[in-house]
Design goal:
The chain has two domains: about 5-210, Rossmann fold; about 265-275 and about 285-480, Serine Threonine Protein Phosphatase 5, Tetratricopeptide repeat. The chain has 16 helices and eleven strands. It has helices at about 25-30, 35, 55-65, 100, 105-115, 130-140, 165-175, 185-200, 325, 345-355, 355-375, 380-395, 400-415, 425-435, 440-460, 465-480; strands at about 5-10, 40-50, 70-80, 85-90, 105, 120-130, 150-155, 205-210, 290, 305, 310.
Length: about 475
């Protein structure tokens, strides 16, 4: 089975540019695809200074949906948005004032990869950041998810000294051009050895094989700009831990938007995707080729369908999510929730694939009850299983139950004090909105419409027109009932 490689180089084109990210692509492109992937053959997708976050997300989603091993090489620039103070990968049009709308939220990357296995999913990163963003990563880590192997660095930008060079990624590419691909841990150590001296202790080194990311507080003290980097414990699988190793904290949320849309059904200001992922000319998603606008309110993006496989994908305000992906690389679990060392997602996935939607929901409900009892209803663990059950309802074609579940998740998150613009809150409301649009029974849609409208008043989301869409569709439903 051929592997998949995504080469992404991104940085602002203006004065805020900290690194010449695209300069490393010719060196990477000179490496044989099989060596880049570590497989016998590989498909390579290259993105150089992309303009739109939705376009990048669509490419990432298509790559993540492939069952084969996936390696994502990212050279670029991290920035915090002014509103939520969350890290984003800056794109060509990004400025400090427009990060929230023109850059790629880092948690989108984490979410697209979260259902994959660390055994076949890796991020190789050479990122540069301003002092504020660098401090954020030093203190909180760069959350890449539990199920992704991560190797690379976050370097402090050179500031007025000019645009930096992605030296770590160039070292990786140079080593790979020999035609030999060692393990990623060994490759990282060899590349880091070539650039460590020039880093002057200002690089945060990311080196862990995945599956072992600790929950905050981290197992090592944070590195600060006004103190030397800490010397943490060596992570599993690494024979030598350079200074400043930063682990990614865990967390389960959903990416708030995706890019699979029909241009005719796009909300105002929401970019429609281009086409043809194979040639690098656009942002086509092979798992989302057709659209059914009849199932959603006028003007609201429709869900995508995988015609070839007959598997529906999740709503376009979320991430591609199909039952097959749930079990990728995860051990089966058929025991009780308190059995240690096992994961239930494979068993749930198998039930969904067999059409046993009721069995899948019963198993997920069991884990939800256990999580609520152990950690509380507003815990990450409990909310994760509530979200899984909302997705299971969607897979079963029960839009009413799915909508109710997402409304409940959003309510719990808001009740727990989460911000109205928190990614997980926005995602829950977006999903509830989409599933509400899929309800075929007008009476049930009228029943849930006011609750959704109330939520939309509090959580308008990132794109304009969502609240107005709910209000207009609700008026149509009420008029038709009279």
């Amino acid at each position: 089975m051929p592997g998949t490689v995504l080469l992404l180089a991104a940085a602002p084109l203006g004065r805020g540019r900290l690194v010449d990210a695209a300069g490393v692509l010719p060196v990477l492109a000179a490496v044989a695809p099989a060596v880049l992937s570590g497989t016998d053959t590989a498909n390579v997708v290259e993105l150089a200074d992309p303009l739109e976050p939705q376009a990048v997300l669509t490419r990432l989603r298509a790559a993540a949906a492939a069952p084969a091993p996936l390696t994502v090489y990212i050279a670029g620039q991290l920035q915090l948005d002014r509103r939520q103070r969350l890290p984003h990968l800056a794109l060509a049009r990004t400025t400090p004032a427009t990060v929230r709308y023109t850059a790629l939220p880092w948690h989108w990357i984490r979410e697209e990869l979260r259902l994959r296995s660390a055994a076949d999913t890796a991020l190789v990163l050479d990122l540069h950041a301003d002092a504020e963003t660098w401090q954020y990563v030093a203190e909180r880590g760069l959350d890449c998810g539990r199920n992704t192997a991560v190797y690379g660095r976050v370097a402090l930008g050179a500031g007025r000294r000019g645009v930096a060079v992605p030296a770590y990624m160039k070292a990786v590419a140079t080593l790979l051009r020999s035609g030999h691909r060692p393990s990623l841990g060994q490759l990282h150590e060899q590349a880091w050895a070539r650039v460590a001296e020039s880093s002057a202790g200002r690089d945060l080194v990311l080196a862990f094989p995945g599956g072992s990311a600790p929950r905050p507080p981290f197992a090592h003290p944070p590195t600060r700009l006004d103190s030397p980097p800490a010397q943490p414990a060596t992570p599993p699988g690494i024979t030598h831990a350079p200074p400043g190793i930063t682990h990614a904290p865990s967390g389960i949320t959903h990416a708030p938007y995706a890019a699979t849309q029909d241009a005719r059904a796009v909300l105002p200001g929401f970019p429609a995707p281009a086409r043809d992922i194979g040639t690098g000319a656009g942002t086509h998603d092979p798992h989302a080729l057709a659209y059914d606008a009849r199932a959603v309110p006028p003007g609201f993006p429709a869900p995508a369908r995988d015609i070839g496989a007959g598997v529906g994908t999740h709503d376009p305000h979320a991430h591609t999510y199909d039952a097959r992906a749930l079990s990728r690389g995860l051990p089966a679990r058929t025991h009780a929730p308190d059995s240690p060392g096992q994961d239930p997602h494979s068993a749930i996935s198998a039930a969904v694939q067999d059409g046993r939607h009721g069995d899948a929901d019963v198993l997920a409900a069991e884990f939800e009850r256990t999580a609520v009892g152990a950690y509380g209803p507003a815990s990450d663990e409990a909310l994760h299983w509530a979200e899984v059950r909302a997705d299971l309802a969607m897979f079963a074609g029960d839009a009413v139950r799915s909508c109710r579940a997402w409304l409940a998740v959003a309510g719990v998150r808001l009740g727990a004090g989460q911000a109205v613009d928190a990614p997980a809150v926005e995602a829950a409301v977006d999903r509830a909105h989409h599933q509400w649009g899929c309800i075929e029974d007008p009476a049930r849609a009228r029943e849930l419409g006011p609750a959704l409208a109330e939520l939309r008043l509090r959580v308008p989301g990132r794109r304009t027109g969502a609240l107005e869409n709910v209000q207009e569709h609700l008026r149509q439903l009420q008029a038709a009932a009279q």
